[in-house]
Amino acid sequence: MACASCSTKEGSPKGCKNNGTCGTDSCNKLTVFDWLSNMALPSGETPFNWVEVRYKNGRKEYYHNSDNVTLSIGDTVATQAQSGHDIGMVTLTGELVRIQMKRKKIPENIEDSLKIYRKANQKDIDVWIEARDKEEPMKVKARQFAIDLRLQMKISDIEFQGDASKATFYYTAEERVDFRELIKVFAREFRTRIEMKQVGFRQEAARLGGIGSCGRELCCSTWLTDYRSVSTSAARYQQLSLNPQKLAGQCGKLKCCLNYELDTYLDALKSFPKTEIKLQTEKGTAICQKTDIFKGHLWYAYEGEWMNWHKITTEQANEIIELNKKNKKIISLEEYALKVTEDTKAEFENVVGQDSLTRFDNPKRHNKRKNNKNRNNRNKNNKRKPQKTNNDTK
């Protein structure tokens, strides 16, 4: 009942027949596994009376169950709104709701907190489904109205309130947009209360979903909830080429995954000397050309001999820098570079008894023609042999 393809109609769930996985990625979007569901509360403890309710596009809100309505995950409930009521689905109950609220810094003791009215009856569900069926044709008209008014914005989605008394229009825009005239057109055309909400391009990509360059579903549409800013310095620290086509995600911004390993790279770079520092030797001044963070190697070249690079370790580079600070110079980098040896030993283990990694590339082909030719030759030879008669045996 979370998406249009498997919404309840006439009291029975329609179902998208995807064997437990939603075909439009709306039912299992930003889900939380309740690992405390099979554990009983200690004696004397009362269950936490807040629940998590999910709406369209994975939007989640937290409500106070003041009337102690018996609720479980998957129940459709009527919740309090600013005016009227809304319809959503319960996605989490119990102590995990307390943890989620603490993580999102939502206070528990609020006098004017939103409440849950009741479990949704059939009339509530019928009104809700009828309102959701209007969203797609309304979105087509709303986009056309924005184009006619020449507004630099895109109507990305429309969400009706559960009682069909209000429609929220989500839009994306590069700059600030004056949509006062657009709201008048919407109110005159759709005959309902209008609310405009601007969403970022990352939120828009999360709503649409898709497959990333890694081959998996987008992080923003499956589990990522906080969108931290990503700068090009994250790519520079990881020594990635500043190619916008490779670094940008489907939202057009830098990929969120550039921040995942950034802390590890920053910790590894603490042992590296700054690339701006030059090494002073008796042979000449050496300048850093390249670094290998994983192996801890640096490549230096003498001024005037840019084609000849000398590879040394971070410990050796720091040792040379300390000597330079004491006004001491080494003879040359060659005596350090010779100590760095390449490890050509294979780092994988043969766990299946087969060493060749390309054993499946060229499958063996049995030469049937050759085997058939050998058989035919044998048959011919057998026919040519004279058969023994009774007279010959005498």
How would you summarize the topology of this molecule?
Elements: E1 8-9, E2 12-13, E3 50-54, E4 60-64, E5 76-80, E6 85-92, H1 95-103, E7 116-119, H2 122-133, H3 135-148, E8 154-160, E9 166-172, H4 180-190, E10 193-198, H5 201-208, H6 219-222, H7 232-237, H8 244-247, H9 262-269, E11 279-280, E12 285-292, E13 297-302, E14 305-313, H10 314-325, H11 334-337, H12 368-384, H13 390-393
Parallel strand pairs: 9-10
Antiparallel strand pairs: 1-2, 3-4, 3-6, 5-6, 5-7, 8-9, 11-12, 12-13, 13-14
Helix pairs in contact: 3-4
Describe the structure.
The chain has 394 residues and is of the alpha+beta class. A five-stranded antiparallel β-sheet has the order 4-3-6-5-7. A four-stranded antiparallel β-sheet has the order 11-12-13-14. A hairpin with a 2-residue loop joins β13 and β14. α3 crosses α4. The longest helix is centred in the last third of the chain and has 17 residues. It is extended, with a radius of gyration of 35 Å. About 3% of the residues have low confidence.
Q: Provide the number of structural domains.
A: 4
How many helical stretches? 13
User: What global shape is seen?
Assistant: extended
Give the helix/strand class.
alpha+beta
What is the strand tally?
A: 14
The averaged pLDDT comes out at 81
Write down the Rg.
35 Å
Helix content: 25-40%
Largest sheet, order of strands side by side? 4-3-6-5-7
List the secondary-structure elements in sequence, H or E. Answer: EEEEEEHEHHEEHEHHHHHEEEEHHHH
For the biggest sheet, the summary is: 5 strands, antiparallel
